[in-house]
Each structure stands twice: as C-alpha cells, then as structure tokens.
Design brief:
With about 180 residues, this protein is α+β, with helices and mostly antiparallel strands. The protein is built from six helices and four strands, in the order ααββαββααα. Helix content is about 50%, strand content about 15%. The protein is globular, with a radius of gyration of 19 Å.
Amino acid sequence: MHTQSSPFGALGSRGPCYRCGGRGCAQCRWVARRTESREAVRRQAFADARIVPTDADLAWGAGLFEGEGTITMHPNGTPYVIVGNTDHQVIDFFCRHWPGCVTVHNPANVNQNAREAWDWRIGGWKALLFLREMRPHFRTDRVIGKTVLVLDAGGLPHAQRREHVARIRVLNRRGLR
C-alpha cells in the first residue's frame, strides 16, 4: 500500500493519500520526491553546521544534560530535547554539536537580581540523533527510561505513541513518588 510519508518514518507518517486511497497516484509520487529532496537539503545543512562530538564531549554533555536538560514529547509524538542554563558557553557547546533553536529569557522585569537564562532546543529527528549519541553515556535511571521511551516510540502507531507521551509526562513531574 502506497502512503504519503516523510523521511522521519513513523514520526512523520501522514497515512494513505486522500485522492487515491493508497494505490499510488502521480501526486503521491511528486509529494514523496519533493519531501525527500527538501529533507535531504535540511539534513545536509545540519551536517555541515555540526561539529561531531568526541567521546569526552559526549560524556561531559551527558552529565550536564542529566542535570540541566529534559526530554519531552509533543502530543503528536514528536520528541523534544531542551537544556536551560545561565551560562551561555554551555548552550554554545550544545549548539556547536547539535545545531538547534536558542532562546534567551530576560527576567530583569520580574527581579532585578535575576540573570539571563538561555534555552537550547531541538526536536524531531535531531532529538532522536542526540539521544542515540548520548544514550551510552547516561547514568540516571530516569533519563535512561525517558530515552528508551522516546527511541521506542518512533515506529509505533499513533495510539501507542500517546501512551509513551503520557509516561514521559509522568516522569517529567517534580516531587516525591
């Protein structure tokens, strides 16, 4: 059965074409080629901008991520990885090795003594790449558990991905268990 899908596999699957019902029409083939070529350009730009991390970089980054980072999933199943810190050099480290989105939070209007905080965020296949590279260096059960849930959710149907999203949200809650 021919389906319109993205190179993300199950994370980006859109199901059968509404025109041909999955039999494969010219529009399906055109969309598939266009999506694949756009995605190839995006992935190449990511690879060109990226510095491949060494084992020492991965170990240091994993330790920092376990303390300052979080793993979450959008309700549609897209994974996100976020690191927040008040030291911009830490955020620069993650940006050099896994280019993503950086935002700054200036809390000066709330508290004069507060410092700027920086957030680094990646999602989708970039987050999966990050987690695959970091997985051998994680040590805490909580982060390992969330990583396994996210990496396993990629090939699941939508209903089962929702269960993984709910489990991740429980693991992200603060407080006593």
